[in-house]
Recover the amino acids of this structure.
């Protein structure tokens, strides 16, 4: 599309001299992620199917007592393939097909854990203020058609699948939730994580569609590492990230549906991969050694210097209706 | 210096075509801060005295019931002027002189609140593991020579001064603290804020020099707005920022002494000014309308969607020695 920047990275790469480019990248993105060599079959399949395929890797230091714990993560971003006035079931089926062909390439690329977009089976409709037909896209997290579809994918490729959907919870009065379903590489539904924080920002007021999540900060132990899901706007609340980490998450996914899509992966040392194109469908494959989590934690000592006891007390005070802020004023000297 | 990037911004400005430059800046820095028109006398004084002088402005929407609350903030970065083996009192005097000549230009530029570097009266010595002569740079926050010097500056220019020093606390056994002294525009010592979190990172292990601060998260009500000081490494702890904000801070300063110096000002809407040069002394002047704080808060609703009661409970649980993380495992199916 004319006038739209493909991505910041491609723009920098096109215009900056090589030496300055690498210094600017270091400042903006931390250490440069290494390019991952992906199989030719995967690259040509991505081209045929018209989506971007990028691969990067983060490394960790070798350790004596732990073997490297290498995992490949895949993030998928995609447009809706059909107009939003197509029948609901036809739109969902088309999205299933589109995702299936991208996940096949993820499997060819050695992906162990794949994560789709927020509410991936539907158009982004929460800004419309309309209920029908959008709420008809909601499904059971445990045995809806999309979860069954993802279980098939997971089993077929021995891949952990994170499937963020609009959830219809029939056992609690048919309530709606913004939920990520986590499916094990064996095809079993491991559990679900509901979006904890809801944007109430202009047209992004999603609070008439679903409520603040009540699943807390679950962490899922998979065969590839412990993972958690912080959905979209929850990224703006540092305490949300903190509690997932306190529960032991080594990878925290942040599926979104937002303005100017972007997907990237950040390592615990602050380095990050470039983002995917801002305008095309894409699959980002990132290989990482999870040993890096503890290595960086031991280096920066954030958990140990965090003084969480103090903040537990301070927050407990601050949420009281009678809270008096600690404001220091100049004493009148006359 | 050859091979050192002056700043990311100047590099981008030199190489990117204008249209792409403004889009890249929008993505990296948010809305572009407007350039501030500074008096010619200030600009030429800065040039004579060999430091960079930059000015930017953030605007807010006009409101019906509140007048704009315009304040100009000045951030100073500086090298040490003398070798580190010079006599302590001579080094301090030289730093006082250097700061005085920069603050004079700040006054010419209309600055209302000025903030110096972390432990600005001494070389960055905490990485040396040596005690003498470095601990001799410590002073009383209430009536040390540096505080008296800053009180003179404050009174002379009716300027609030934030003076981060190594503090010697004689009333508590001569203990040392990493402390920001806040001096009102009248010249009165409003109070002090001690660094809450201490880096214990390789050579940046400062924990043998001073202890975790015990002043909590004080906010100082000045004639120009409510301000707080989050010293250096405390910036990595989101709860530290949060509690200053909970106590009502409208501007939170973050004086640092770190690798690759940088000073910049971020507005509540996420836009930020470019940084100063990475290699020269400098004064960054930023004008802002503090009404923007509440405007952005009302737009994004972070405080209202923050669910702090939940996190107060969760943190209280998480700091217990018997805490059991919420980890979900696959049930054995055979």
């Amino acid at each position: 599309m004319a006038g739209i920047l493909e991505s910041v990275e491609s723009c920098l790469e096109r215009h900056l001299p090589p030496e300055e480019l690498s210094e600017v990248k270091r400042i903006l993105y931390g250490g440069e992620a290494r390019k991952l060599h992906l199989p030719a079959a995967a690259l040509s399949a991505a081209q045929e199917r018209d989506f971007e395929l990028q691969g990067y890797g983060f490394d960790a230091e070798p350790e004596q007592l732990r073997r490297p714990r290498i995992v490949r993560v895949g993030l998928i971003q995609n447009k809706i393939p059909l107009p939003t006035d197509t029948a609901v079931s036809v739109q969902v089926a088309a999205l299933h097909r589109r995702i299936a062909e991208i996940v096949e390439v993820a499997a060819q690329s050695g992906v162990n854990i794949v994560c789709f977009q927020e509410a991936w089976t539907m158009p982004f409709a929460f800004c419309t203020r309309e209920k029908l037909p959008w709420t008809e896209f909601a499904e059971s997290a445990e045995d809806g058609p999309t979860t069954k579809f993802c279980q098939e994918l997971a089993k077929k490729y021995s891949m952990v699948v994170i499937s963020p959907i609009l959830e219809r919870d029939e056992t609690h009065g048919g309530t709606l939730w913004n939920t990520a379903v986590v499916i094990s590489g064996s095809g079993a539904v491991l559990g679900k994580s509901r979006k904890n924080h809801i944007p109430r920002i202009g047209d992004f007021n999603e609070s008439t569609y679903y409520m603040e999540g009540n699943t807390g900060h679950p962490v899922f132990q998979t065969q590839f590492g412990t993972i958690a899901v912080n959905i979209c706007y929850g990224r703006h609340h540092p305490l949300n990230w903190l509690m997932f980490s306190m529960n032991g998450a080594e990878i925290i996914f942040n599926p979104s549906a937002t303005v100017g899509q972007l997907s990237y992966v950040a390592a615990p040392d602050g380095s990050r991969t470039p983002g995917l194109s801002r305008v095309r469908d894409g699959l980002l494959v990132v290989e990482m050694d999870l040993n890096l989590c503890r290595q960086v934690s031991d280096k920066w000592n954030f958990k140990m210097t965090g003084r969480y006891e103090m903040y537990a007390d301070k927050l407990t005070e601050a949420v009281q209706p009678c809270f008096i802020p600690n404001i220091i004023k100049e004493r009148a000297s006359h």
